[in-house]
Design brief:
The complex is a heterodimer. Chain A contains 15 helices and 14 strands. In chain A, the strands form four sheets. In chain A, strands 1, 2, 3, 4, 5, 6, 8 and 12 form an eight-stranded parallel sheet that branches. The mean pLDDT of chain A is about 85. Chain B is mainly alpha-helical. Chain B is built from five helices and no strands. The chains are: A alpha/beta, B mainly alpha.
């Protein structure tokens, strides 16, 4: 398979991409050569967007230093921006700090057109300032998102897209940006043959396209002064699903693989769509959304996703479900067919977090054996840009885990504050029959790091990450064999 | 072999004197027999040192015991064992009257030989450590991964 073009729309798009980045940092393998990311969100000051782009930048810098020929290892899959190597991962489209009525040129319309416009949009909708997004108005989004077909981002997508590449969209169905953006963007792609100034029209119009649509899984606190109202979520969802059913799927399907997920348990977040607004805690829905991307890349073959004359031959539909309705989820509650290697990768990365957070700096200061030899990992390494990025990324990982745990429909796969034997929630460490076998402890981990450092590495950052990854691979196999 | 081993200990002959040295070499009053305490002491302390060194570097191989001062503690133990064995072998002969009448061996000579034996054991400890470190660092045998940089 070739590249994966991953397009996140709106806040939910950002948050699912954030979860995917945690999986990729853990070493979860995608059957792609690289992931090319674009986030479409007109809400410039969206905190979720800011956090995701920071994580993307950190990942990029770490991956650039380590390279991508370390299959199954941390930070291996290259992730780049569609807009360029060190360009932003986001596009706000061509939206200035203006109201919707200014965007559509209401003031310069004839009287008849103004009257017709008022039939379609309320006064409140016309006065929405779009610098904070479409605030739950997909009817605005469906107008604005059409400009994507004339954007540099779309032209870049079309010009770089190869036959073996795939596209995947992430959107929510109960907001404004994602609900409208998803069908509009797919329509633009499938209709590429009829557009001007688009390179590779035929190829992009016949692209393999997947998408994740997230149904309501959180609400906002009621506030009559705010544009977003939780009570509208279900109504909007129903309307959007009706539209999707007619125009995206069924006999006229334009999408190859459509994933949906939602939760009737909806935690309430602060109703703050303005500057610095929308900073939601990570939610299990977003994690399972990231799982769907892994499924799309790894489980669906090119034959499963064939397209003919801009129409998928055999469109597929997937819905995520839990076996049991539980308030706190662990690995034991998830699909066992995915038991490895996805969960194993996350476990290794969580152990890596504990090592980095509690022991690594003191081990480097005391010059443990894995730090010696060429290349060495010495005290000066602690002040390198790579190590600072590595630490910051792990802090984001910890924040992500904490948010998942405290959310409603908690996901708590790890007891991060406990020792290694209790790290995996609900899973006991394997007891060996060998009386001389060493119990799992900080010293066992250190011993494994020392053992794994015997081969040579080209540079200190690679040595640190590879030694950590390979030693934790052995630790998980020896002490938690169910995740082998 | 006896001459070679004797020459090692007799670097420290000043600690235990020539009379003790003759007895250790095997002098029975009229001739030098084949039974040399130098050999007994050497092989027993060398074997003990080797067992301890292998236990420390390879069998134990613990990340909790890989600092230079841990190594030094092991060295002190080996010195102690060398001292005890040297003191014991010579001391038994002195206390049971097995020393030739021409030779005078005092308690301080016995203690001095114990110290010499301890020093020789410690030198063996350094040599064995060096050999194991060389093998651990330069070959593909993945041994002593926690201790292969101890003490240097």
């Amino acid at each position: 398979m070739g590249k994966l073009y991953l397009i996140g729309i709106g806040g939910t798009g950002s948050r699912v991409i954030k979860s995917l980045m945690m999986l990729l940092a853990s070493g979860v393998k995608l059957n792609v050569t690289e992931v090319v990311v674009l986030i479409i969100d007109p809400h410039r000051a969206n905190d979720d967007l800011r956090r995701t782009t920071e994580i993307l930048s950190l990942y990029r810098d770490i991956n650039n230093e380590l390279g991508s020929d370390r299959e199954g290892s941390f930070f291996n899959t290259p992730v780049k921006s569609l807009l360029g190597e060190y360009e932003s991962y986001t596009t706000q489209l061509d939206i200035n700090d203006e109201r919707f009525k200014e965007y559509i040129g209401y003031a310069s319309m004839s009287e008849e057109n103004q009257a017709f416009t008022k039939l379609l949009f309320s006064q409140k909708t016309l006065n929405v300032n779009m610098n904070i997004g479409f605030v739950g108005n997909p009817n605005i989004g469906s107008v604005v998102m059409n400009q994507f077909s004339e954007s540099d981002a779309f032209r870049t997508l079309a010009s770089t897209f190869q036959e073996q590449d795939r596209i995947f969209f992430i959107n929510s169905i109960f907001g404004g940006t994602g609900a409208a953006g998803f069908p509009t963007l797919i329509k633009n792609i499938r209709n590429a043959r009829n557009l001007t100034n688009i390179p590779n029209k035929d190829r992009i119009a016949n692209a393999k396209i997947g998408g994740l649509t997230v149904l309501p899984y959180f609400g906002v606190t009621p506030d009559e002064t705010k544009a977003i109202n939780k009570a509208d979520f279900i109504v909007k969802t129903r309307s959007a699903l009706t539209y999707y059913n007619k125009n995206l799927s069924g006999s006229r399907s334009v999408i190859n693989a459509h994933y949906t997920i939602g939760d009737f348990q909806m935690p309430e977040y602060d109703n703050d769509p303005g500057e610095d607004g929308q900073k939601n805690d990570a939610h299990f829905i977003e994690v399972s959304g990231a799982f769907s991307i892994v499924h799309y890349c790894n489980r669906l073959t090119d034959t499963d996703l064939e397209v003919s004359d801009c129409r998928p031959i055999n469109p597929k539909f997937f819905e995520y479900g839990l076996n049991e309705d539980k308030q706190t989820l662990t690995f034991n509650d998830l699909d066992n067919s995915q038991r490895s290697p996805l969960y194993k990768a996350m476990i290794k990365f969580a152990m890596g977090y504990k090592i980095q957070n509690q022991y690594l700096e003191s081990w480097i200061q005391s010059n443990e054996p894995f730090c010696k030899g060429e290349p060495s990992i010495d005290a000066a390494f602690l002040s390198t840009t790579f190590f600072q990025n590595y630490k910051r990324f792990y802090q984001h990982f910890r924040d992500w885990l904490d948010e998942l745990e405290r959310n409603t429909r908690s996901f708590k796969p790890f007891n991060v504050n406990s020792d290694f034997t209790q790290l995996i929630n609900g899973v006991e460490v394997k007891r060996s029959r060998n009386p001389f076998a060493k119990a799992l402890s900080m010293n066992t981990i250190l011993s494994q790091l020392n053992k794994s450092s015997s081969k040579g590495y080209p540079a200190s950052p690679i040595k640190l990450v590879e030694v950590t990854n390979s030693s934790l691979e052995t630790v998980v196999e020896n002490y938690f064999p169910e995740f082998k | 072999m006896r001459d070679f081993i004797a020459s090692i200990y007799e670097v420290f002959i000043g600690l235990y004197g020539s009379d003790a040295a003759q007895h250790l070499y095997g002098f029975d009053g009229s001739t030098f027999t084949n039974n040399s305490l130098y050999l007994d002491v050497f092989f027993s302390t060398t074997l003990g040192c080797l067992v301890i060194v292998l236990s420390y570097y390879i069998i134990g191989n613990s990340p909790r015991w890989n600092k230079w001062y841990h190594w030094l503690i092991i060295g002190v133990i080996i010195f102690g064992i060398g001292y005890i064995l040297g003191n014991y072998f010579l001391g038994i002969d002195v206390s049971e009257g097995l020393v030739a009448e021409d030779l005078t061996i005092t308690n301080s000579d016995v203690i001095g030989f114990g110290i010499a034996s301890g020093i020789v054991s410690f030198i063996e400890f350094i040599l064995f450590s060096g050999i194991i470190l060389l093998i651990a660092r330069k070959t593909s045998l993945n041994i002593a991964h926690n201790t292969k940089y101890t003490p240097f």
